[in-house]
Amino acid sequence: MSALKVFVPRDATACALGADAVADSILAGAKGRGIEIELVRNGSRGAFWLEPLVEVETESGRMAFGPVALADVPGLFESGFPGPADHALGLGPVDGIDWLASQQRLTFYRSGWTDPLSLDDYTRMGGYKGLKRALDLSSQAIVDEVKESGLRGRGGAAFPTGIKWQTVLDTPAEQKYIVCNADEGDSGTFADRLLMESDPFQLIEGMTIAGLAVGATEGFIYLRSEYPHCRRVLEEAIARASQANWLGEDIQGSGKAFKLELRIGAGAYICGEETSLLDSLEGKRGLIRFKPPLPAIEGLLGKPTVVNNVLSLGAISTILAEGAGYYRDFGTGRSRGTLTVQLAGNVRRGGLVEIPFGATLRELVEGYGGGTASGRPVRAIQVGGPLGAYLPESQWDVTLNYGALTDIGGMLGHGGIVVFDDTVDMAQQARFAMEFCAVESCGKCTPCRVGSVRGVEVIDRIVANQDREFNLKVLDDLCETMDKGSLCAMGGLTPMPVRSALKHFPADFGA
Length: 511
Known about the structure:
The chain is of the alpha/beta class. The chain folds into 4 domains: 4-101, Glutaredoxin, CATH 3.40.30.10; 119-328, NADH-ubiquinone oxidoreductase 51kDa subunit (Rossmann fold, 3-Layer(aba) Sandwich); 331-421, Ubiquitin-like (UB roll) (Roll), CATH 3.10.20; 426-509, de novo design (two linked rop proteins), CATH 1.20.1440.230. It contains 21 helices and 16 strands.
């Protein structure tokens, strides 16, 4: 009789909630009872409200238990675990958990199912199918496939990925680069980290396909310094992909080359902006570059460079494996593929949700999120990171796509959704936006560097009811200057949360 497979996630969130201790206790409990098991540290499914989520492989599928605390392990064994177990934490088949089953996962298709560092697991679940196809296509054919898919940047700017790649392909140069922006710094976002920790070969495959598409033979992953789990997983995954000839001078005997390196970020939020990231990657202080020239023409070391987010590059393998039409048919209008959102803040069921574009904010927060963790009414929802708008209940029925959110003065950004209950002080949230900009600004342009500092002071005067009407006018003028005069989105978007808080929650400012 073969050993039963027991799965305990190795994702940073699961570990923060005690997954390592649970895994050790399960091993010790099985040994003490003479039960032979194979413990697999899989990736997380992103259902963080159920972590640590322990699973057992059975003839009828994977059975789930969660959230399992260290103190729960002895009781699990007493109830029959890892065999048929009647326990209060039993969730039944993983496929039957509605929170997961109702999603339509493309980018996170393998997340939670596999050992993230097993190439066998990866290829068994369709991994490298896209790269195998790409090796037989011309560069232009790959770019055309990406353009036809409708994929847009998932990092915030939402620029069409295929157009960016076409620019790099059409720019003649002896050396070109692929750079993955993995400096995920927005509050309430964790999708990049989850993909890198749960399915790193998918990112590696996507970057390799990008290299083939534009004629780049070198790539770099610029990883947020606060992600040590990602670092360990990516270092090992790159080494294994190289050993298996999925990276290197002669990929799978094709005669085509692509090398990949991991670089650790400088710990600055501004380095999530692509030109500041490139400066940091070159060993300089991360400062915004003037545009033009665009990085696609003069990027890393002055060479044509594709700079894409983790989720954008992660989607590439699916597009090449299944075809542009398959990916494009998810979503509507100019928002194609799947919507990957992260539910965070004061929310009962936090985690990652991947569904086709078209759902409303209310459906996500009240349906998948289950309302607030505090049990109090939701008052405001911020979409798009710390520089996104605060949306009141009157706007929760907006369809989550790029155009609809822009029409109401918001943005989708990287898909972070942060929930606040009715105890939140929106004036303080507006002040935080200005303070955040003041702390994180690279300092290159005056509207961002000085405007954010003055913004904090003006909001403090408004809250203190000091010359209120005059200071409201000053704040409006200041926001306009930052919006129109800043070099990058750091200063340009800071007014968005401030203006939305003032517009929708005036009572918090003393109105």
